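Annotated sample (chain length 410).
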Amino acid sequence: MTRVLHVLDHSLPLHSGYTFRTRAILKAQEALGLDVRGVTGQRHAAPAVPGDVQQADGLTFYRTPGEAEGPTGWREWKEVSALAARIVEVARDWRPDVLHAHSPALCGLAALKAGRRLGIPVVYEIRAFWEDAAVGNGTGREGSAKYWLTRHLENRVVAGADAVVTICNGLLEDLVSRGYPRSRFTVMPNGVDMAMFGTPLPRDAALANELGLGEGPVIGFLGSFYPYEGLDDLIAAMPAIVARVPDARLLLVGGGPAEERLRVQASASPAASAVRFVGRVPHHDVDRYYSLVDVVCYPRKGMRLTELVTPLKPLEAMAQGKLVAASSVGGHRELIEHDRTGTLFPPDDPAGLADAMADLLCHRQRWPERRETARTFVEKRHDWALNVRRYLPVYQTVLGQEPDYAEIAA
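Output written by the structure step:
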């Protein structure tokens, strides 16, 4: 049985898109017969656990002791060194066959350092370019020294790893444009654990009444409120949407850096009475709020992050049997086919968003076929139980084995 040690920035029991993708990968790999564990760096900001080993949702995670602190540069060097030492410690006891590091580059650098000491091959998986993510969430600036340093570190890991995986074609094409051969990369697209998301709840009438949603239709967004998500454009579009669909309501579930500004914007809107903020909700309650939503909307801004990276949330919404509408940035176009699996509208354009949403809401006869088409698309193309097989030839190649394509296709 092949043993794979996943090197991670953070993990369960923390909740984020990053940890949910990790959980899905590890669970699907276990079901495939691989022996998997994870090790996290010092940025896993959670209370210490006895022995620095933790069980979460039936998965084993090793923790790296200490805290990430100190001036920029020195702090990151210490993080990489501490994580590399922890990987070596874990590996000498558990003896993995492969180190599978996931972005950011600090995880990849630690894995490369440990892999060289241990003689173990390293697979590096890029979920996003973190310099672009920093720009998107407002903590970085494109073209800054930190931006280029982060990009340089990413390039070092890509060059040093035995194999590289990306989550989408947008990231792959950007790497190819940097001079790396296309054959070096494998795409492992975002997926959905259909066992978790494949059985949507019936509409929670009591919760709908509590929130004053009426009979709808309800437009929803469930996630983190970062500026790049474009929720300001969605709120700006609501007066025009309500003018054409008077009973339409907007349900915003979650929180984040843009929340306060969005609340102020909504309270000043002519459509203020049609907007509901719920705040953050426990993860086990998310399905109750999904049950209230007819159309899940993702109005992401146009920028490098959103053009290159495919999000996870639209796939989860499709699996829940929800209609999906999204801005036509590259990451969305890679997942959504306009007028077939979803509705695309121009980014950074509240008027265009309003026209697309109102048209969708006014043609309910199209909804059942659209829902079924989108759900089937996720089942066939983005179910982790199937997609996880794409890792097998990657592992077999770095281990010097001949890929068993019959097993992969089974």
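Annotation: Residues 3-191+383-409 form a domain with the Rossmann fold fold (CATH 3.40.50.2000).
Annotation: The mean pLDDT is 94.
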